[in-house]
Amino acid sequence: MSHLRRCAIFTLLVLALGALLHAMAAGGELLFHDGFDDPGSHWTRYTDAECEYAYEDGRYTLAVAERGWLYWVWAPYEGFPVVFQASVQAYSVGWSSGGWGLLWGIDDDNFYLFRVTTNGEYAVDVMAEGVWQPSPVPLTHGAPLNQGLQAENRQLSKENEIRVEASTDLVTLWVEGTMIAQVPIPSLGPGRIGLAVQTMGDPNYTVSFDEFRVFALD
User: Fold this and answer.
1) Is 43 inside any structural domain?
2) What domain range includes position 199?
3) What is the CATH number of the domain that holds 36?
4) How many domains does the chain have?
5) Which of 146, 148, 173, 185 gets the most CB atoms within 10 Å of its CB?
6) Predicted confidence (pLDDT) per residue in 28-39, tens digit
7) Is 14 helix (H, G, I), strand (E, B) or coil?
8) Phi/psi of residue 101, each to 5°?
9) What is the spatial distance between Cα 130 and Cα 188, in angstroms, rounded to a whole number?
10) Which residues contact 37 (CB under 8 A, 6 or more apart)?
11) Average pLDDT rounded to a whole number, residues 144-169
12) Are 212 and 73 in contact (CB under 8 A)?
């Protein structure tokens, strides 16, 4: 057996084991997983002067040019259940401040957003009928993010994982394996889950995403 073939088989085994361990930890069925290695996995690809959605180097990037703007993208899957766990890994590219997170809901006018910021804050925002509502969790310090820089590239922050566990009337928020809040908010019903990026005081903020997973919880 060639060295390359052995390496390929080993890589597949590692990926399969990782998926199994995540499923065991979540306690449910894996419904959707994307490591963004395949540019044909049907996430939005789009570029204009204000934003860019792209596959890049086996990851998915979302870049926002203007200050104070929020852009999001839904996973190419509809009908996620009410009770679920969603997680994603990400890091910031460059020096700008901003935020990124997971959103879930039924469409672009009705959703919840769990986001973390480069300042170590977190929040839960609500959009209803296209209008922002009072936040059940306003910006709060205490997100235990890896705030350093990757040693091999000083323009890349360290990677962090955030997670949402949702039931019919309660959402549990996790950062880097630490539970940071439980929020009593009602489900919007079976729907969609996606990613979001927001600029803050600086323009030109980019986030690179990896390992997006959604489980149906028992």
Assistant:
1) yes
2) 30-217
3) 2.60.120.560
4) 1
5) 173
6) 999 999 999 999
7) helix
8) -175, -170
9) 14
10) 58
11) 89
12) no
